[in-house]
Predict the 3D structure of the following.
Amino acid sequence: MTVLDEPILLADPAETAASPRGMWRTALGLWRTRVGLGLLAGLVALAVIGPWLAPYGETEFVGTPNLRDVEGATLGTDYFGQDVLSRFLYGGRSILVLAVLSTALALVSGVTIGLVAAYSRGLVDNVLMRLMDINLAFPQLLLALVALTTIGPKAWVIVLVVGFTTMPRIARVTRGAAVPVVERDFVSAAQALGESRFRILRSEILPNVSGPLLVEANLRLTYSIAIIAALGFLGFATSVNAANWGLMIQENKGAVSVQPWGMILPGLAIALLTVGTGLVGDGLARAAAGIDRKKAT
Amino acid sequence: MPVLVIDGLRVDVAGDGPDIVDEVNLEIAPGEVVGLVGESGSGKTTVGLAVLGHARKGVRVVQGSVSINGREMLTLKPQQLRQARGDLVSYVPQDPSTALNPALRIGKQLMEVLEYHDFGGSDQARRDRVDEVMAEVLLPSSRHFLRRYPHQLSGGQQQRVGLAMAFACRPAVIVLDEPTTGLDVSTQAHVLETVRDLCRRHGVAALYVTHDLAVVANLADRVAVMYAGRVVESGPTTSLFDNPAHPYSRHLIAAAPDITGQRATVGLAGRAPSPGRRPVGCAFAPRCELATEECTTAFPPVVEVAAGHEVRCVRPWTVPARTEAGPVSLPGPTAPADATLVVQSVSASYVGHRVVQDIDLHVGKGECLALVGESGSGKTTLSRAIGGLHHEWKGQILLAGVPLAHSARDRSVDQRMKIQYVFQNPYSSLNPRRTVGDSVARPLMIAGASKAEAADAVGEMLSRVSLTGAYAHRYPDQLSGGERQRVAIARALVSRPDLLVCDEVTSALDVLVQAAIVELLADLQRDLGLSMLFVTHNLPLVRSIAQRVAVMAAGHIVELDTTVQVLSEPKEEYTRRLLEDTPQVPVYE
């Protein structure tokens, strides 16, 4: 009988750079990922439990508008005489929820389209990806504004329109990552066994592109936060007087010289939120590419 | 007077890392070709690059010297080094298609080399030199040809351009790093002929780095065998192949397939230790059946066993019993009436371009039919059509008398289970995100087995391919190439197929691993009564496994007969030429 190759002892396979688990582990060794995660955790906690900490209600009047020294209102009142701190503590939730939902929508649809295109090749690939190109040709914010002005500033419209315009970007990255995987022999092996197309996409190809997708999802979340905040600033918040960081900046920009808190606070929060997600995405990307590998270990 | 002298070379992983190669001494005289042979990871390429004064990223030359014509290469400044490369020493890389700049015409690339080194002093002299060197590598030097881009040339022509660039400035030393891997045998034979001729004629010292013993046996004047970073044996080619003194060299030669069938190929357990995992004493001791305590204390010193023949072994010329295999013995061919697979006038095409023409063949029950051909002969397309992976074909493929659908998806579950395919590259045929157990169990799950049944069958099949059940929980990247190919074979066999299609299953593996896989397949075929279609470009290998051979060329079967008949008395001119061009490891008695 034949002989046995001596087995070798390598690191846990999940730790190889391209697998999501290994990527997280490597990324967590980098300062940028840790700082990013810290910022995110802080801001998410603030947005989630903020409303319970707020001294006043979301739309409660506490005094004369645009004052810095108001009894009971630590950071003063805003343009409408509401408590700035309370408005700020209420205003994070909607941005976060909308950004996460729209990124999730973009991820599901974009990954599906990208995988199907990469696996089918030929006509299907061409039709799908050219449709994505058409979508990409329109500026994201402009498309969002058109939808919001025609249908109205509803939460589901924001999620749909931001998700829809983010989708082609994710589809392109997915397709790019999946094309070389499709050509590998284990996919042929699955075809020879007669595996269904769905199963091949889900079990053979998807796990092998999850690394780059993780990075992409993070990047797109950063962009979604920025866009939804921008929409708020432009006045397209879900309800007219609900607190919203983007809207707050717009509302209080007129009085920035006398009462800056109404603008600084939400502006800072949005900046830190995008910087946080950006740092995490950057850390993951570096882990996937193997930059700083020595430093991380 | 040797032109190249490597003395006590040691190369480490940078930053206190372990040694990659150590104690390498080598001398090459003008006009001499020295073959540096070793398996992947033996350090042979590291030595080859050190001759150019180069160390790969993360690697550092820490000791020793490399001198060419008395000039030390390892201490040159970058500017001097650039000048020396091309002038003094040049390099022919493995893959010419990536080594040539795809955006530049080949004439321009040749001129660039000469201009950089200011060869000849004038443009006219350089142009004359281009014409001359093109003639030397047997390529046309017409303006028209020199204006071509690399992609407009065949693989053999590209490698000739690579040779022309290396020889252009008349270097004293040339390093060739597996320059014929990936070329067809006939192209390889011609390129090797050119290399030999040019070195002789111009007195160039050549270091030929390769894993292919057969090539070295036919090309080199002297051979150095590397194992785990050290040269374990070196000597004149005839002396070394005649009577190898080191047990590892013996194993290498025993693993090389023999076209005459006088000796069966023999594999070897274990693998070469990687840098940092090398044992104290002789690195080969853990795999050596002759090893004694003495071998594990210190690395054996160099012993000169014959004129110019040196070995690092405490008992040179002791023959390991396992390497003395008898002639190949295979069960005889079976009657055509009992065929598992029948292919009837099958033609296949790629987007309308016909690549397989009107093929008729059958594979008998328990028989192995080898499908041999050069690249582009259509052998893989035909095998993929049989496996249901290539859909553009017409004709009939019958499994146990029942015609098969074109696509695997349109075939019945039973039919899919009865034909199994093993792919060429074990590094790409297993899903890296899935455990070995999951991959092997998949065919059974499709056939409707329960998890427990599948797990039992997987454990049994893994032990059949000489792995243990413990492998089921590992991931592919924890396995060696040979182990991965065993897993791929286990996956193919777990559904108890009638027909196994093996597509170049050993071409990505080292020779010792290849021998072990071929032994395994022959054993399994006998034990399980498998029918097998063994697709390969390696003619000598066929002798160890197949009862019959079909030789394919340009989409046709040019010759189909018993293996003994085809290999010893080929009827067709094409087969004869193929056999002549195939380098052989000499068999001495």
Remarks:
- The radius of gyration of chain B is 25 Å.
- Chain B touches chain A through 51 residues (CB under 8 Å).
- The CA atoms of residues 124 and 130 of chain B lie 10 Å apart.
